[in-house]
Write a structure and sequence with these properties.
The complex is a heterodimer of chains A (549) and B (262). By secondary structure, chain A is mostly helical. Helices cover 73% and strands 0% of the residues of chain A. Chain A is built from 19 helices and no strands. Chain B is α/β, with parallel strands linked by helices. Classes of the chains: A mainly alpha (549), B alpha/beta (262).
């Protein structure tokens, strides 16, 4: 008779899961490419640390200031800041959870309570949660230093606030996870988020133009916010400080109520998952009658000037782009931002009455476009997945793959630049002919020059990205650093050359210099293709291993 | 004299300290339906990856259709087709788009590619979902599509890594018939499978790899005769396989060690 394993405590299970995650991270570092990635992560970690620490001082100072200067109600603003960040940051930036397939825990003998608590504990492992906990702690310290008597109330309110936030984040996360289990919904959601991110840039122009009209409306709406958790938290703290016991009880009870409601919702979601809800269950697509693909003779081949292999790669890249809503909408953003910037700065500088010159604004906007659009080229195999093997199975040299991919990128850039150019010409007018020509030549130099580097980076630091997903996506750290360094070098060289016209008093000098640089970049690009082909053969195992995971 | 389709000499592949393939000498004649067998981790997929250019050997040489792979990789790839482990599909294309992509990558003209893609989709019973992305195909459908992509250019050697895994019996029957016809017309098929009955039914010749070394190679009759000592033996391939792979006694599980389970 087989033995049966004994029960494992919840804490032991949390520890086991933490250990597994640590091992996954540590084992990942055995690979050379992942070690390079660690460097990128450390750089990112330093910046994140500075961000969190800087705001810790801010929250400490804010709480101290409000409480020591008799404005305790204003502490609600600090709670609002943390609340918004905690709930929105996972949606906009990192995705929910910590990239760990939490449902896989169901294979193990966990009871529902343990499953719920482990889920809640892992909600605290997100960046947004950790950062928010740091800020809440800073606030508590700031409040305690200002008014020591408020510490017990502060601890209770912060504790409730923390509980309701972590629960709410998990609820939203699990609801969205369910909603996003369908690919189409997921891609639509990503598109909506991207568009809303773009829309955030419109807030400033709208407030500038319609601020006076919106003020009465805002004043009417603000009282309704007093029943939201951050306002309740602020109310409770103010009540504790001013000895309004009823306010303290009301605020705390409100927070407790919210925490209880969110807990019920989360419990229901966890129960459904615990019972084995399959998120990917969707209605089977209806079968359609067999339909033949159009005969080749019916359709003229628009890419007949290219070799069949290069044309095939261009077509495939185009289809992937059109189907990957995430990538597709990132293409819409740059011209939209050019439109926003140009509409904001039309006629005058935002901080002075001096007119903005298209002589500088035009090259600046073009440089911005290149900065944004060249990024994905540094990891151009990201969406191939297992399909990367096809390139190594078919009889071609890798230069044809690069040519196809780069050609598609150049086409996208051409369209984006064309659209942006029309918008800039409409809002600001075009710059003088020497600057216009110099900018175009500079773009050829910067784009083609970067392509060779980007191709090298794609082979050296490949990282698989999930198609049409924003959640849990992480670029290769080294590819990002390479792109960053390359952009600085190309941007720096371009700026120096562009200014040389002013310094020397020869307006055509930058155009001539950029023409030479562009010719050199194009020559260098074609010369690099063979070397990159050889490199691709040498790196095929790294590529296949990284992308077939 | 029979043309040799595949010949390897001292072919080896090491991953750090691990030797996955240890100097194997393979010889496969043109037109053979060749089964390549071995237990898990024996080196089958590594060998196939090397023979198809997905993995570089650490040592040794490979000749396919008389061409040195290292010297003429593109010429060799033009004449071979592969269903690799994991299938290597571009999952965000439809089946038709993928076949057209692969056909064009092999240098077929557009008309031929489309005609063959349509015929293959019909044959594989994949034509009724023209707008379905490969990502939404079932495992069996993906397998059939990978096979269609491997044969679209009419290869002279076809490498199949577990081609029938996940394919329903109906489709498997049609595929076997197709593969049989291809060998009749001179195509060499190099197949790995864990299902020994399939190998026994389809293959005329077999090689067995164990711990990276080639431990047996020959026709099925030769291997059977080698075990029983007489020609025309009724020994099954499974018995041959087990006797060769498990002959040192280390492979046989010691059930007494699992007494707590029984």
């Amino acid at each position: 008779m087989a033995d049966v394993a004994g029960a494992v405590g919840i804490l032991a299970q949390i520890r086991l899961v933490a250990e597994v995650r640590w091992r996954i991270l540590r084992n990942g570092l055995r690979r050379k490419t992942n070690r390079f990635d660690l460097l990128g992560m450390i750089v990112l970690g330093v910046f994140s640390g500075i961000f969190v620490l800087g705001l810790c001082f801010g929250f400490f100072a804010g709480a101290y200031e409000f409480l020591s200067h008799g404005r305790p109600g204003w502490i609600a603003l600090l709670f609002w800041g943390i609340f918004v960040f905690w709930q929105l940051f996972p949606i906009f930036a990192t995705g929910f959870g910590a990239g760990f397939e939490f449902r896989s825990m169901l294979r193990f003998p966990l009871n529902l309570t343990a499953f719920y608590i482990i889920g809640l504990a892992y909600g605290l492992a997100d960046f947004s949660s950790l950062a928010s906990v740091c800020w809440l702690t800073s606030m508590t310290l700031g409040a305690a230093v200002a008014k020591p008597s408020v510490l017990p109330a502060m601890l209770m309110v912060v504790g409730l606030f923390l509980l309701l936030n972590v629960t709410l984040e998990r609820v939203i996360g699990s609801w969205l996870e369910r909603l996003l289990s369908r690919r189409r919904t997921r891609e639509l959601f990503v598109a909506l988020i991207l568009l809303s991110m773009v829309s955030l840039n419109l807030i400033n122009p709208i407030v500038n133009r319609y601020g006076a009209l919106l003020k009465p409306l805002a004043l009417r709406v603000i009282p309704y916010f007093s029943w939201f958790p951050p306002s309740l938290a602020g109310r409770a703290i103010a009540g504790a400080l001013q000895a309004h016991f009823a306010e303290l009880v009301l605020g705390s009870a409100g927070l407790l109520f919210y925490a209880a409601v969110f807990s019920v919702f989360l419990w229901r979601r966890c129960s459904a998952q615990y019972r084995g809800e399959e998120l990917s269950e969707t209605a089977a697509p209806a079968r359609v009658a067999a339909r033949r693909v159009a005969k080749a003779e019916d359709v003229p081949d628009r890419l007949s000037a290219l070799s069949p292999q290069v044309a095939a790669v261009v077509r495939k890249e185009f289809r992937y782009l059109m189907r990957n809503n995430f990538s597709f909408f990132t293409l819409i953003m740059p011209p939209m931002l050019v439109l926003i910037f140009s509409s904001m700065f039309t006629g005058k500088h935002p901080t002075s009455e001096h007119q903005i010159s298209s002589e500088m604004f035009f090259p600046g906007m073009m440089a911005y476009l290149i900065l944004i659009l060249m990024g994905p080229a540094y990891n151009c195999f990201a969406f191939e997945g297992r399909g990367i093997q096809t390139y190594f199975m078919v009889p071609l040299r890798f230069r044809e793959v690069f040519l196809g991919k780069n050609l598609m990128l150049l086409s996208v850039l051409a369209v984006e630049i064309g659209v942006s150019l029309v918008m800039l010409a409409w809002w600001l007018g075009l710059p003088s002919l020497p600057v216009f020509v110099a900018t175009l030549a500079a773009m050829v130099f910067a784009v083609v020059g970067q392509l060779s580097l980007a191709n090298w980076s794609s082979l050296t630091f490949p990282r698989k990205l999930e198609f049409g997903q924003m959640r849990g996506q992480r670029q290769s750290g080294m590819a990002v650093l390479t792109a960053f360094a390359a952009q600085i070098v190309f941007g720096g060289v371009s700026a120096v050359v562009l200014f040389s016209g002013r310094w020397t008093g020869n307006p055509w000098l930058p155009a001539e210099a950029f023409a030479l640089l562009a010719a050199a970049a194009v020559g260098g690009y074609f010369a690099s293709l063979d070397a990159l082909s050889r490199m691709a053969e040498e790196k095929r195992e790294t590529l296949i291993e990284a992308l077939c995971r | 004299m029979t043309e040799t389709a595949i010949r390897t000499q001292k072919l080896a592949r090491r991953f750090g300290n691990l030797t996955a393939v240890d100097g194997i000498d393979l010889q496969v004649a043109a037109g053979q339906f060749f089964g390549f067998l071995g237990p898990n981790g024996a080196g089958k997929s590594t060998t196939i990856k090397m023979l198809t250019g997905l993995l570089a050997p650490t040592a040794g040489s490979m000749e396919l259709l008389g061409l040195d792979f290292a010297a003429h990789p593109v010429e060799v790839k033009r004449q071979i087709g592969v269903v690799p482990e994991g299938m290597g599909l571009l999952e965000r294309l439809t089946g038709s788009e993928y076949l057209q992509f692969v056909g064009r990558m092999y240098g077929l003209d557009r008309g031929t590619t489309q005609r063959r893609a349509n015929e293959l989709l019909d044959f594989m019973q994949l034509a009724d979902r023209p707008k379905t992305l490969i990502a939404d195909y079932s495992h069996g459908m993906q397998k059939k599509l990978a096979l269609a992509a491997a044969v679209i250019h009419g290869p002279r050697i076809l490498f199949l890594d577990e081609p029938f895994e996940g394919v329903d019996a109906l489709a498997a029957g049609a595929l076997k018939a197709l593969l049989g016809r291809m060998t009749e017309r001179g195509t060499t098929i190099f197949l790995t499978s864990h299902v020994l009955e399939i190998v026994e039914r389809l293959c005329s010749h077999v090689a067995i790899i164990h711990k990276g070394r080639l431990v047996a190679q020959g026709s099925l009759e030769e291997l059977r005769a080698g075990m029983s000592g007489e020609a025309g033996s009724k020994t099954t391939l499974e018995q041959v396989f087990l006797s060769i792979v498990g002959q040192d006694g280390t492979e046989r599980p010691h059930l007494e060690e699992l007494s707590w389970l029984m």
